[in-house]
TrEMBL record:
Residues 21-50 have a biased composition (Basic and acidic residues). Residues 17-55 are annotated as: Disordered. It comes from Mariniphaga anaerophila. This is Uncharacterized protein. The chain crosses the membrane at residues 82-99. Keywords: Membrane, Transmembrane, Transmembrane helix.
Length: 103
C-alpha cells in the first residue's frame, strides 16, 4: 500500500517510423519525364482517353463558403448583443445619476 502511494507512472514513449527519401529515384523520375516530353510520349491516361488533370481551382473557396456564412451570422448576433448591452447600461447609468430615485 505504501509502495503504491509513492508510485510515479512511467514516461510515455514516442515512436516515429522513419521515412526513406531516395534522391536518386527523384532524379531518375525527373529525367524520364523530360525525355518523354522531348520525344512526345504521353503519360498515363485516364479512362476517358485524356490525362488526369485535377479540378482544384476554386474548390477551397467553395468549401469555405458555408464557414464564412456561419461566421457572419455569429458576428451579427454578437454585434446585436453588444448594442443591446450598451443600451441597457446607458439606461441604468441615466436612471442612477440623472433621476430622482435614490437607492
Amino acid at each position: 500500500m505504501i509502495g503504491r502511494f509513492f508510485h510515479t507512472p512511467a514516461a510515455k514513449k514516442f515512436h516515429v517510423n522513419p521515412r526513406f527519401y531516395d534522391p536518386d529515384k527523384d532524379e531518375r523520375d525527373e529525367r524520364e519525364r523530360r525525355i518523354k516530353d522531348e520525344l512526345g510520349i504521353k503519360g498515363k491516361k485516364s479512362e476517358g482517353g485524356k490525362p488526369f488533370r485535377p479540378n482544384v481551382r476554386g474548390q477551397f473557396r467553395q468549401a469555405q463558403e458555408g464557414f464564412v456564412r456561419s461566421s457572419e451570422k455569429g458576428r451579427r448576433a454578437s454585434n446585436t448583443r453588444l448594442i443591446f448591452l450598451i443600451l441597457i447600461l446607458t439606461l441604468i447609468f441615466y436612471l442612477f445619476f440623472y433621476s430622482d430615485f435614490s437607492f
